[in-house]
Amino acid sequence: MSSEGHRRLALRVAEVVGVPTERRWDEPWPDREPVSWPQARREDLAWVRESLVPWVGRRLTGRSSGDAVTAKRPTLEPCRRSDRAE
Asked: Is 1:9 a contact under the CB 8 Å cutoff?
């Protein structure tokens, strides 16, 4: 998701759980600045290089984007109330 998509998702979650907000998640999307054809193609090529090529490479080799990621808490521990939550 884009940063605008994340913002709207957070606003929707706040609405569902009853947290008041100043803005609504379903307001019209802001207008995008017009982009020239060459600039749009450069952006497309950057996306292909940064996102599509690595994804295809992982699929061809049977790897996952999370293969090298380790657990933040590898051993199961009981939940404790945080003093900061007060």
From this structure: yes
Query: Would you kindly state where each structural domain of the chain is located, as residue ranges?
Result: 1-28
Question: pLDDT by residue (tens digit) across 3-61?
Answer: 999 999 999 999 999 999 999 999 998 888 999 999 999 999 999 999 999 999 999 99
Q: Are 35 and 43 in contact (CB under 8 A)?
A: yes
As a whole number of angstroms, the distance between CA 15 and CA 7 comes to 12
Amino acid at 34: P
Q: Where are the alpha helices (DSSP H) in the chain?
A: 3-17, 37-47, 53-61
Taking the model in full, what pTM does it have?
0.54
The type of residue at 86 is E
